[in-house]
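Model it.
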Amino acid sequence: MAGRIEDYALIGDMQTAALVSRDGAVDWLCLPRFDSPAVFAGLLGTDEHGFWRIGPAEPVADADAAGPPRSLFTDSGEIRVIPPTAAAPAVPADRRRYRGDSLILEQEWDSQGGSVRVIDFMPPRPLAGRDSVPQMIRIVEGLSGRVRMRSALRMRFSYGRVVPWVHRVEQADGSHRTCAVAGPDSVWLDGEAETYGQHLTTYADFTVGEGERIAFALTWQASHLPAPSAPDAENLLIETMQFWRDWVSQCTYQGPYREAVVRSLITLKGLTYAPTGGIVAAPTTSLPEDIGGERNWDYRYTWLRDAAITLSSLLRTGYRDEARAWREWLLRAVAGDPENLQIMYGIAGERELTESELDWLPGYEGSQPVRVGNGAAGQLQLDVYGEVVEALHLAHMTGLTRNDHAHHLQLKLISYLEQHWTEPDEGIWEVRGPRRHFVHSKVMAWVAVDRTIKLIEQSPTDGPLERWKELRDTIHRDVCEKGYDAERNTFTQYYGGQELDASLLLIPQVGFLPPDDKRVIGTIEAIQRELSTEDGFVLRYPTHDEHGENVDGLSGHEGAFLACSFWLADDLAMIGRVQEARELFDKLLSLRNDVGLLAEEWDPRAKRQVGNFPQAFSHVPLIDTALRLTACAGAYLSAQATV
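Modeled.
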């Protein structure tokens, strides 16, 4: 059974990623890419759909529990608790952490016989090495005493549907490897402990003593190719740690929130598909926004919006190579058809992301359907033009090498907007209800035109400058006249509506109006009053009207959207309520799990993370708010020094 979303930690190689639970189980891994079918899909079902668990096979010490000790494994390899009471929980690791600033995970258990550590990581594949293969390495290290351990590996291809042919392959030296094959895929298990098969599962039982290390490695290879080489686990561990040290050393942020910022940057790097520069929104599909409901989506693709704001954060923290790679990805993805800009693409720029349902998977805690692909790829979301142009503008302003193709693309996008900005769209939140004239979409259309005007004014780029200045003014008037409720002193979600929308918090951040404008302050206060939860976090929009009717085409409710809550902290700082902003930011940081990761949303009723995990759209605004609050502190100190 899958753990709580926040029970998982991320490891990855910048081409795919795995989620490792506190009980030592890998419950999610797609091979060979983020968007490939999962080999371990237990996260969205049960152990029958694939997992790899390593942990103590003997009783686990628990000084706080009365009664008999607990055990992680039964003789058949299934996880089971022998509880002191019937309600005793499953056994997590006693401690876990990332090794320094890296994606190398360490988990430790204290058992009756001693203490043991399991080190999990995926070696980064060379940036240009598209033929390199993904590997997951697990090293068991004895810390004290002697501990009996068990590895239980159940591979299920095609999201848990296909049981592969598992067989032993004898080597010239008399050793053997375990190979699982189904269709185009093969997965090879190498280990320093003897394995055996039982119940369609591969086991290894072994004992580790103090100072001993026993390594296992799982390697994917296309089934028609020769067997991949067995990896050198210890050497790869050293190289992987050095990779992360080198990468983190480029970070230019040195403020008071450095730990949270660096962990978020590492997470964003882990969500980047290195061969192309595309950035996935999350490495998972169908983790629910509403536990038990239908708000379950596949996030293993590159949203232009998410990727554009990610580029902004990377640029402002010193990561120019990633920004340059994303810009090149964008140019390739959009090439030849900028008028039909999609809101998202595959990680290599694919356009076809057909949505379907996997009816054999019961879903995370019964949340159905489980979806792959994403039908929102065909939606019209005019705000995306603004986010893309803003990212290109920032790249230009921060000195990223000029790219004439990027400038040409920007002009083509504005030419399209000039003809279509008056149309209704589905908006930033991808509602599956009717198209509307969303205020945020119009504001971001204004941003696209405004930044392009600046490009023409500041660089040798030609364009109809006066005409677009008039267009900018027209959009601005239109929003202020049709999207603003003067009686309530707030902007609204869409023209003629009464509902609020947290995306309105971006109005001062993108420069549409200054922070001290009474309409901005009124909107911030209205969102605090009408869209905030009891603990001060922010909902995206009301999912139901005053009659209880659904308004976005979906049943159920959702949690507080973490990105919107960070936006509120930004706005509070911008209007001078800095202490309130810091308090909200600290509360948001406290929602991270013990290894610093955030999902998409926070369920204020269940007090748990919900939605796909970890979520780029949560970690990016965390970085942005940290930068803003650090700047506010610097401005305050400078002002004090002049008094």
